[in-house]
Amino acid sequence: MRSSRFLIATLKETPSDAEVISHQLMLRAGMIRKMASGLYNWLPMGLRVLRKVEKIVREEMNKSGAMEVLMPVVQPAELWEESGRWQQYGPELLRMTDRHDRPFCLGPTHEEVITDLIRNEIRSYKQLPANFYQIQTKFRDEIRPRFGVMRSREFIMKDAYSFHTSTESLQETYDVMHATYCNIFTRLGLQFRPVLADTGSIGGAFSHEFHVLADSGEDDIAFSNASDYAANIEKAEALPPSTPRTAAQHVMQEVATPGKHSIDEVCEFLKVSPQQTVKTLIVLGEVREDKTQPLVALVLRGDHELNEIKAEKLTGIASPLTLAPEARIKAELGVGVGSLGPVGLKIAVIVDHSAAHLSDFVCGANKDGFHLTGVNWERDATAPLVADIRNVVTGDPSPCGKGTLEIKRGIEVGHIFQLGTKYSEAMKAKVLDVNGKEQTMIMGCYGIGVTRVVASAIEQNFDENGIIWADSIAPFHIAIVPINMQKSPAVAAKCEELYTQLQEAGLDVLLMDEDKARLGTMLADTDLMGIPHRIVIGDRGLEAGSIEYKGRRDAEKQEIPVNDIVNFLKATVKV
Amino acid sequence: MRSSRFLIATLKETPSDAEVISHQLMLRAGMIRKMASGLYNWLPMGLRVLRKVEKIVREEMNKSGAMEVLMPVVQPAELWEESGRWQQYGPELLRMTDRHDRPFCLGPTHEEVITDLIRNEIRSYKQLPANFYQIQTKFRDEIRPRFGVMRSREFIMKDAYSFHTSTESLQETYDVMHATYCNIFTRLGLQFRPVLADTGSIGGAFSHEFHVLADSGEDDIAFSNASDYAANIEKAEALPPSTPRTAAQHVMQEVATPGKHSIDEVCEFLKVSPQQTVKTLIVLGEVREDKTQPLVALVLRGDHELNEIKAEKLTGIASPLTLAPEARIKAELGVGVGSLGPVGLKIAVIVDHSAAHLSDFVCGANKDGFHLTGVNWERDATAPLVADIRNVVTGDPSPCGKGTLEIKRGIEVGHIFQLGTKYSEAMKAKVLDVNGKEQTMIMGCYGIGVTRVVASAIEQNFDENGIIWADSIAPFHIAIVPINMQKSPAVAAKCEELYTQLQEAGLDVLLMDEDKARLGTMLADTDLMGIPHRIVIGDRGLEAGSIEYKGRRDAEKQEIPVNDIVNFLKATVKV
């Protein structure tokens, strides 16, 4: 491509409304432009990257044996009513009516459509297993779209859905998808980790997320420092302490803590560490037959955080997890939230393993302005239910049994699920089994956020000058930057010759042939746009028989003999 | 691809709700499935064709110098309000509101979005001309979606938009697009014609449609039998008769024609040919200052049809063309529509050239139940305004001056427009010209109905056994059909060997390796699916050293020596 015939839309200034680096650099490198909140135009430079990502995803999905299909963006409400999601799905589902007043939505995902398609097409176990995927535009009406294409409303997703007659077959395809995702993210040049994940509201038994590791990630991932174990912090198990609890040494005492509500305030006032305290949160229990929801107390060590996902799965707790209104706590327990504690509490109490392991701890006295010290379980308070309800923290033993946990930030770019029969049951998607009997199909689903991959690759690969693309997804592999191309016939001829030769070698080349472009601007642009390889061609070099080469990550330039440059680049670029 | 790992979803019966052959065959060949009215799923077999069409379109657009972009499907109302189309566009524009109650629509076309994008990105004449295209999902809420993907609501379109500072530059790009479209449709293996077209409501000066010729087409195309001239019948000019009018021979007489209203009834009753009669249509004139719309009479020869597009462009006629309500005609003219005529009519009269050329003709008497014979212009009726307001018919002289016209049916698959400044003016899309002065950009736009191309290729290429794909867009180039693959190791080995060799040669091969598949079913399926080349491999042939080959259009099979088959196929398939 000649830059004179291509829209190079680089910006010098960082747009003020872009918070994360990928959003800033995608705007500055002229890859995307905002059309409206959460809606982006992909400019030619950006689209070249997007199409390369799509191509890698498609090639690997085809290799895995999945079949590509294409389902509509606009979906009829009836299918969503069959699955029950027309009611369940919140305002992220953009609903509309057509000219005949029939209700439709824009597809945020396609479980309903594929299940409807396959229940009509596949009738026999002999046609299974089968895995179908599409690469297609999706829409989620995010309440607060942000970070550019990282969390936009319209985006491109690769979604796949597999169908089976046994859980063994589902596991096989799940494993194939796990391996395929590893191949995809490896080819994309990303540092990533598959992590155990919660299955969330989509349902199903077993799930992995694929995370690109980057400080700007919205998720916390727990890793073992001694094994392959990795899990989303939502899911990572906190093992119960393995040592016996220390015996009680102190008597329980009530102390006045006027105006001290938070753990930090109380600790500073009483000169104890947060690890020696417990905090008590009051949440709503499950709805009873008489429609009331009892209060339930959750007790955690002062330095730990509640894991809502773990807590809401416990029997007796309402899902989604809901903190009790302060007024109701005050009315029923006679105390404000700053002085709650497990001693003498007349409601159900669930204690985290780590809190249950404490002796001589500090907690609220259930009396405003007072705390208790020297508290001990059994002697002073009962802990009838002990469970894992906290987030793991750095240094916790790994649940795999090897090493301790570290926490890193990740960006979720892929997710694989064992769905089971959630959709096929609701939508009556059945096949005839070996014995000619109807059997509900078992399903898996597998997603990759294609547009998000582009942004997350930048989050992981940039420097102060701009983006650094991996060769596999770079918009152009090589930039040819001429010095005075318009004035020097020798430079012009060499540029044209190399432009042709390198393209013939299968490389994507950007020839910076714009009239009157300044060298400094061209170099800054190629850096900003992240072109991984750059050669500068000028009269002085040509006279000396050499061409200047610099890799985007290199600290130093190299002089390559003119006659070697094509072979050098063919060997250097990893296509 | 192995058929055992691919969804072959052929149907024996023709689905009853499919009217046209392409819709029937796309369903029967397992290419598409209906999800809801005008919304289709593309199955693996169909998507392979769609992707090949997309690839050819993309390659030729890139070759033309156009730059690929991707704009959102969901578009904000503000942009459509700027262009004025939020009000103008009818219910085909699917409108919706997001969770914050902001109005949006699903893009049926992207003039507004691209104009908004480019007015912000391109500031100088130096960056022009520039041509941007996308291949993307569009939505038009058709009142009556039909013919499968031929007229669906959601469809894929290639739309391109070019920007210029002069009409000469626009004409240059327009010519490049004209040539590019010819290349595209030629590579797609279609018989097509570029035809002059009316620019319609999208505006602009100059326009060509690209039509695939097929009897099922919804458009009538007029061709010269002696030149390249071709035009949509909406646009094709009817030349005025070149001979002088015959002198009057008869006196005008009023005759009773009780119960005879239509031209056919009157002709039969009076024993005259329709060519010797005129018919009079009453339409609404332009709105006057006092908000009333006068009546206007349009007079055509009895055997001719009104061309609404031509008529509504005339001064004094309301656009869109609207027939006057019968009650108003009766009230103001004192006669029903079956007996109208130009004699003594007290409203404006516009006469078509051919009708104005008649002498001694028959027309309604403006008196219910009566007609006039022997009517002559000037002597009996005035024809103050003579214009071209009819559709051309077979045998008319070609407007190009060479030969006469023939009429054929066509399916519109592409359309190129010289838009001019319709959108750039309304949306203030300006650049600085050579003198640093602001200038409104001049635009062109260029569309191809990608999904419709697939259907129209079938309309033009099928027989009683199914689809006949051109090699360039066939889902698979070659089908390998084994006889008793499961029982014969020799057949299995040869099939596998050829499957590998042919794929290595860059050909798309479908190996029909399903267990227990019957030969007859496999042959019928490959014909139905339109696979252009087929080889049958069996023990008997292998023993005789030959493999049976049949091209999809061939009447006879051929025996090809086993050792030649790969080279034979490489030479035969046009990739």
From TrEMBL, chains A, B:
Keyword Cytoplasm: yes
Species in which this protein is naturally found: Cellvibrio fibrivorans
Aminoacyl-transfer RNA synthetases class-II family profile domain sequence ranges: 38-482
Domain notes: Consists of three domains: the N-terminal catalytic domain, the editing domain and the C-terminal anticodon-binding domain.
GO MF annotations in UniProt: proline-tRNA ligase activity
Family indicated by similarity: Belongs to the class-II aminoacyl-tRNA synthetase family. ProS type 1 subfamily.
Coarse class of the protein's main subcellular location: cytoplasm
PANTHER family assigned: MITOCHONDRIAL RIBOSOME PROTEIN L39/PROLYL-TRNA LIGASE FAMILY MEMBER, PROLINE--TRNA LIGASE
EC number: 6.1.1.15
Pfam family, one: HGTP_anticodon
Stored HAMAP family: Pro_tRNA_synth_type1 (MF_01569)
Catalysed reactions, as listed in the record: tRNA(Pro) + L-proline + ATP = L-prolyl-tRNA(Pro) + AMP + diphosphate
CDD domains per the UniProt record, alphabetical: ProRS-INS, ProRS_anticodon_short, ProRS_core_prok
Function: Catalyzes the attachment of proline to tRNA(Pro) in a two-step reaction: proline is first activated by ATP to form Pro-AMP and then transferred to the acceptor end of tRNA(Pro). As ProRS can inadvertently accommodate and process non-cognate amino acids such as alanine and cysteine, to avoid such errors it has two additional distinct editing activities against alanine. One activity is designated as 'pretransfer' editing and involves the tRNA(Pro)-independent hydrolysis of activated Ala-AMP.
Lineage: Bacteria, Pseudomonadati, Pseudomonadota, Gammaproteobacteria, Cellvibrionales
Coiled-coil region list: none
Protein name: Proline--tRNA ligase
Record's keyword terms, sorted: Aminoacyl-tRNA synthetase, ATP-binding, Cytoplasm, Ligase, Nucleotide-binding, Protein biosynthesis
Gene3D superfamilies: Anticodon-binding domain, Bira Bifunctional Protein, Domain 2, YbaK/aminoacyl-tRNA synthetase-associated domain
Record has Ligase as a keyword: yes
Quaternary structure and interacting proteins, as annotated: Homodimer.
InterPro entries tied to this protein: aa-tRNA-synt_IIb, aa-tRNA-synth_II, aa-tRNA-synth_II/BPL/LPL, Anticodon-bd, Anticodon-bd_dom_sf, Pro-tRNA-ligase_IIa, Pro-tRNA-synth_IIa_bac-type, Pro-tRNA-Synthase_IIa_type1
Localization in the cell: Cytoplasm
Principal EC category: ligase
